[in-house]
Amino acid sequence: MPRLSAVLAATLIVLMGIFPGAAAGSAATQSFRNPVNPSADPSLMYHDGDYYVATTRGDRIGIWKSPSLATLLSAPEQVVWRDSDPSRDTQMWAPAFRHVGSRWYVYYTASDGVDANHRMYVLESAGDDPMGPYTFKAKIADFGEYAIDGEPITHNGQQYFVWAGPGRGMGGPAQLYIARMSNPWTVTGGRVAIPADGGCTEVREGPTPLYRNGRTFLTYSTCDTGKPDYQLWMKSVADGADPMVAANWRQHPGPVFSRNDATGVWGPGHHSFFRSPDGTEDWIAYHGKNTSTYTYDFRTTRVQKFTWKADGTPDFGRPLAAGATQDLPSGDPGAATSVINDTDPEVSYSGAWQSGSGCGNQCFWSDDHWSGEAGASATVTFTGTRAALLSVRDRGNGIAAISIDGGPEQRVDYYSAIRVGEQLNYLSPVLPPGRHTLRVRVTGEKNPASGSTVISMDRIEVY
């Protein structure tokens, strides 16, 4: 397609944040769409020419690296840590980066498989590379009880550690705590509980710092990450005030980032912040779902730019639709990426397929194609080195056979007990630059839990 004018492109970006069906065709190379990673609890940063993201992986610490946000979804995971100690080798959650001197530190939560035994740990890099290698450094902030989601903050030049732990008379991570740090892997002295509102009683977790004009904002998640109302709230402490005095923390009323039913984003939270490559823009990375069902599955990493209000507080806006086309961060070099919708001429269909907009905001541009007829196929013609398929998974979906350039087929199960859209169902291998064909064949088969053999075609990201 011809490149859109700047004014028209900006208009479409705004519209697609509200209506995923506001436009069609390939997007410009200076844009991207969410998700940027298929996992949850992101710590995302830009450093020395590359983006890095670490997310919850369960049995390991993994990091993805890409020179452009547009290609982060297609980047390979590099596993930087597995643990042979059975007291901390599972339920590994919420890694968070910090750079101190010439070393990188990754803070994370792990257990022996029993949730109540979660404690916090820190890895240290061998050199000045965020990809490691890493070695185990220490257990951190162990006060003899459940503790998760810890990371350092800096206020008035002093380092502190903040985390989530049990509330007074409440179960689960319902209280935030803070303690001073003497070095990147050690807290010193006692802890202080920071009372935190949240619109619910379930959790106060994922405390993350944000800085502006000497003021430290502590943003945190509430209301259980499996629920659609998982959301962000915020406290702040003024320049010069002691953060170890609970009363010095100002509670900001109401959620600062929450579900957006109009764009099909539920449970936005457990986040991090990063600056654009040129340092002029502020961005938030968070996980969200495009199902309102209570589930811990299908949380994917999304990012969007935020601004600041006249009173000096952040304005995070509302979560954009997963497929909303956004401008890349300022200074991002971009990449030769594009997007193909299921209705675009690059997709041809053979056999019986249906199409429509009944899937609404669970689909890219509010439409998709689907078929349950054995032998029906969809062929995508694209120019690039890689392609990703994102579409609906549902309890009535079956098994597809996917091939590239007439090569061997890979079987992919599109079934899910929960209906959810724009899920990464397939990522092709890296291909030689040039013209390629990707074929999706309906096998007519399904796993025993599924009610039918339907396969959906929706959104194709091309790299």
UniProtKB/TrEMBL annotation:
Q: Which InterPro entries match?
A: Glyco_hydro_43, Glyco_hydro_beta-prop_sf
Signal sequence, renumbered to the chain: 1-23
> CDD domains annotated for this entry?
GH43_LbAraf43-like
Keyword annotations for this protein?
Answer: Glycosidase, Hydrolase, Signal
In which domain of life is the source organism classified?
Answer: Bacteria
List the Pfam families hit by this protein, alphabetically.
Glyco_hydro_43
Q: What biological process terms from GO does the record include?
A: carbohydrate metabolic process
The record's listing under Gene3D superfamilies reads: Galactose-binding domain-like (2.60.120.260), Glycosyl hydrolase domain, family 43 (2.115.10.20)
Task: Provide the site residues for: Important for catalytic activity, responsible for pKa modulation of the active site Glu and correct orientation of both the proton donor and substrate.
Answer: 149
Under Gene Ontology molecular function, one entry of this record is: hydrolase activity, hydrolyzing O-glycosyl compounds
Q: Does this UniProt record's set of keywords contain Transmembrane helix?
A: no
Can you tell me which residues form the catalytic site? 41, 205
- Family statement: Belongs to the glycosyl hydrolase 43 family.
Q: What is this protein called?
A: Hydrolase
